[in-house]
Structure formats: C-alpha cells, structure tokens
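Predict the 3D structure for this chain.
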Amino acid sequence: MNYNKAEFTASYGLFKQIPPSDRPEFAFAGHSNVGKSSLINKLLNRKALARVSATPGKTATINFFSVDSIYVVDLPGYGYAQVSRSEKKRWAELIEGYLHDDRDLALVFQLVDFRHKPTDDDIMMINFLIDSEIPFVVVLTKADKLKKTEREKRLEAFRTEIPCFEDITVVQFSAETGEGVDELRGIINDVVEGE
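Done. Predicted structure below.
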C-alpha cells in the first residue's frame, strides 16, 4: 500500500450525497479535537491533506481520501458543545447514516484521548460499534503528552472505563513522534490482504 500516493477525493455534508461504496473503507471516528486529522495526515505521510484546526468541531463533513485500493474516511468529530442543535443533528445523521449504511466498511479506528477518561460519547460510540458488530480498533491519541507512569495508570483505568477493553485491539499513537503509525498501517494492510 503506497500511503504517499493518498489523495483527497470528496467531502459530503449530507448522508444522501455519499455515493455507494466501491472499495474497502477505513473510517476514523472520535470526539472533536481528539486528533483525527493529525492522525490521518501522519498515517498518509502528508502535512495538510486532512485539515487540522485548533477549533474543535471544524470537520463538519465526511471526507474521503483514496489510497491505492481503499478509502480513508474522516468522520466529523462528535460531542462538541459549541454548535447549534440543528448542526449537531445533521452531524449525528451523517455519522449514523454512514455507519448504518450497507458499505464496504472494513474497519473503524475509534480515537480516544489517552490523557483522559473516555467521554460519555466515546463510550456510546464504542457500545454502538460492539452492538452493530462493526470491527474496530481503539487508538489512544496524544501519547507523547504522557510520561511512562501516567500511561500505565491510564491503561489500567481504561480496563474499567472502556467496555470489553481486554478484547479490543488498542494502539498507542502520537502525531508528534509518529508512534503507532507503523502499527496502524500494518493493521490496514492485514485487513486489505485478508479481504
């Protein structure tokens, strides 16, 4: 898989605009400001393919990036309070519509901020993925912000905070240092080869 050849394909603000699936899709989900765009840029070896913003809730569309024979899909961040109720509803419909649709959804990367207890929305999303039997991996972002002992404490806490934590593949990730990038690429390659 040549990650350097990634290209932005399209953005969709409404679920009904999204064309049918024609290849495996790897979706990235998570709370606003958890680092989805930074992770995607790091994964695809680009500085600004996915737009990174200091303002949470900036990705208000589903963005598709093509990489060889797959799509990397950047879902809007959820749980951000500073948007109107109608905008929240549109995001929810967009994300749920996408996840419920009959797509070739190979895997969801569910991002959780390593430094904090998962939000209620994170837990709701993880339970949704479990209940819907959608394969997913939990990615703990901003790993570089924690010292070794803090990491160990958070990992221990996640065992009780995240449902079925022991059964989930978990990747520790940092967009700053690149930690976890090879592991994520390996997971994608394994899934693609197994298709």
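The two ends are 14 Å apart (CA to CA).
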